Amino acid sequence: MGTMQRYSLRTFALELIAVVLALLFLVPFYFVLANSFKSFGDLLADTAGLPKSLSFDNYSRVWDIIQFPKVFLNSLLITVFSNAGLVVISGMAAYRIVRAPSRFNRLLFGCFVAAMVIPFQSIMIPLVKVASNVGLMGSIPGLVICYFGFGVSLNLFLYHGFIKAIPREIEESAVVDGCTAYGVFWRIVFPLLKPMTVTIVLLNSLWIWNDFLLPLLMLNNPNIRTIPLATYSFFGQYTKQWDLALAALVLGVMPIVVFFLAMQRHIIEGITAGSVKG
Asked: Which residues pair with 235 in a beta bridge?
């Protein structure tokens, strides 16, 4: 009885700590959401308080000022095409490295892993020079190609570990039935990678959708700016329009939050299915 009581008290204490930590992490989201409904004067007068009324004036102004449908479409195109390319390139490369473990492939995999520790800030200037020389500056395809280069290392590393757990016998049976190497990958291996693919797409989407520095360097055309770049326009050298900026932040974050909540269910289902595989 005493053991059960001590266990219950310990569990209650841990749950209480977890709830307190969760509330602390939610405090910034409260400030952003609550202040996005306030006027600039009310925001400065009472930052922590609730808005006096749910006025959507900030949101309507932001919608028109930053041309939200256009910047939303730009961010969506960049995220979708970057994800598609990263999944294809990383998945096929990881499969080849795992199934053909030569010395060159092991060295190549080591180079990809080593590339993950290189900070982006150290290669910003060379990146801009190279992108300018090959005509990638100021275009969405150029930015997508850069995301291929920066994202393939982590994605390949994740795929590599998952593919190693797939039995070779499944692929050998497909080869006996007359399936080509590409057919084995796309018809047999790639469907089995669904749990990892969903995880990779989610991680890439969170990174690419909210990325600010790389689009700032690459997209010098205001007509193709992303949501983070459009939000940055409210922060000038002498004035900062916090009321509009916070409303823009909410508009920009909501699509990726909805996407995360929708994809989370598939991640849990995929992990559950993978845990009993084979």
From this structure: 240
Contact 206, 260 (CB under 8 A): yes
8 Å CB contact between 38 and 51: yes
The pair of three-digit structure tokens given for residue 13, joined into one six-digit string:
């204490």
Per-residue CA distances from 113 to 108, 124, 150, 156, 176 (Å): 9, 20, 12, 9, 34
Interior angle at CA 34, CA 47 and CA 66, nearest 5: 105
Q: What angle do CA 81, 259, 190 make, to 5 degrees?
A: 55
Cα–Cα distance for residue pair 224/72, rounded to 1 Å: 10
Given a contact cutoff of 8 angstroms between Cβ atoms, the answer to whether 87 and 201 are in contact is yes
Q: Is the dihedral of CA 236, 28, 256, 273 positive or negative?
A: positive
pTM here? 0.86
Residue 76: burial class (beta carbons within 10 Å; 0-12, 13-18, 19+): middle
- Joined together, the tokens standing for residue 259 give 């996407």
Bridge partners of residue 240, in order along the sequence: 235
3-state secondary structure of 240: strand
Q: What is the per-residue pLDDT for 267?
A: 66
**Could you give phi then psi for residue 169, rounded to 5 degrees?**
-60, -35
pLDDT at residue 116 is higher than 60: yes
Query: What integer pLDDT is reported at residue 216 of this predicted model?
Result: 92
Q: What tokens were used for 45?
A: 């007068």
- Domains within the chain, CATH numbers bracketed: 66-233 (1.10.3720.10)
Nearest alpha-carbon partner for 148 in 219, 89, 76:
89
Q: How far apart are CA 85 and CA 258, in angstroms?
A: 23
Q: Tokens standing for 262?
A: 């929708």
State the Cα–Cα distance between residues 194 and 71, nearest whole angstrom: 30
